[in-house]
C-alpha cells in the first residue's frame, strides 16, 4: 500500500508537490517527491509517447498499425481538447527500483559512484516539470455541464502501487466535481476494476453499460 503526504494545501492548485512511499520496501521505506501539474503547457508529447510505451498502454485503441503506435497529431489534438489533464513528475533517478540497484554488478560500481554524485546534485534541485521525468498521466474530457470521462490513466511500472494513480484520479474528479460534474465514467479493462473501485468508482447505479461502435472505417 502506498500513501502520499501533501506539502501544498490548495486541493485544486494547478501545481503541487507531494511525497509518495513504496511500502513494499519495508526495511528501507523509499519516499520520493512527486510534482503534480494540471497545466497543459507541462505536457511534453514526446515524453507522453514514451510513457504510453513504458506502460504498454495505447491512446488509440483502434489504431490500424497496432496498439503501440501513437499518432502524434491526434494526440496533440486530444490533449488540447481535454478538459482536465494531470501530469506527475519525479526526479529521473527515483524511477529506478531499489531492487534494480541491488542487482547491479560490482563492475558497474564506478559508474554507480559517478551517478550517485549526479543523484546528490539532482536531490538538491527543486523538483519541477522542467527537470523531472513524466511518470504518471491522466486526462478527462467533459461537456463542461453534465458528464465527463477519464482516459489514458497510467503510471510508470516501477512506481506503481505507490498511490500515484489514485492521486491522479482524485485530482481529476475533484476538478470535475468542483464544477458540479458528477456523472464521471472510466472506460477500463476487467483487471483495472480494483484500481477504479479503490478510487471510488463502481457499477453504474442506473444499470448502464458501455457499447462500442464496431463498424470499421472501410465498410
Ligand atoms: C492502473 C494504474 C494507473 C494504477 O496506478 P497505481 O499508481 O499503481 O495505483 P495506486 O497505487 O494509486 O493504487 C491505488 C489502489 O488501487 C488498487 N490497485 C491498484 N492497482 C491494482 C492492481 N493491479 N490490482 C489490484 N488492485 C489494484 C489498490 O487497492 C491500490 O491501493 P493499495 O496499493 O494500497 O492496495 C497503473 O497500474 C497503470 O498505469 N496501469 C497500466 C495502464 C492502465 O491499465 N491504465 C488504466 C486504463 S485507463
Automatic annotation (TrEMBL):
<dbReference type="InterPro" id="IPR016181">
    <property type="entry name" value="Acyl_CoA_acyltransferase"/>
</dbReference>
<dbReference type="GO" id="GO:0006048">
    <property type="term" value="P:UDP-N-acetylglucosamine biosynthetic process"/>
</dbReference>
<dbReference type="GO" id="GO:0008080">
    <property type="term" value="F:N-acetyltransferase activity"/>
</dbReference>
<dbReference type="Pfam" id="PF00583">
    <property type="entry name" value="Acetyltransf_1"/>
</dbReference>
<protein>
    <recommendedName>
        <fullName>N-acetyltransferase domain-containing protein</fullName>
    </recommendedName>
</protein>
<dbReference type="InterPro" id="IPR039143">
    <property type="entry name" value="GNPNAT1-like"/>
</dbReference>
<dbReference type="InterPro" id="IPR000182">
    <property type="entry name" value="GNAT_dom"/>
</dbReference>
<feature type="domain" description="N-acetyltransferase">
    <location>
        <begin position="73"/>
        <end position="219"/>
    </location>
</feature>
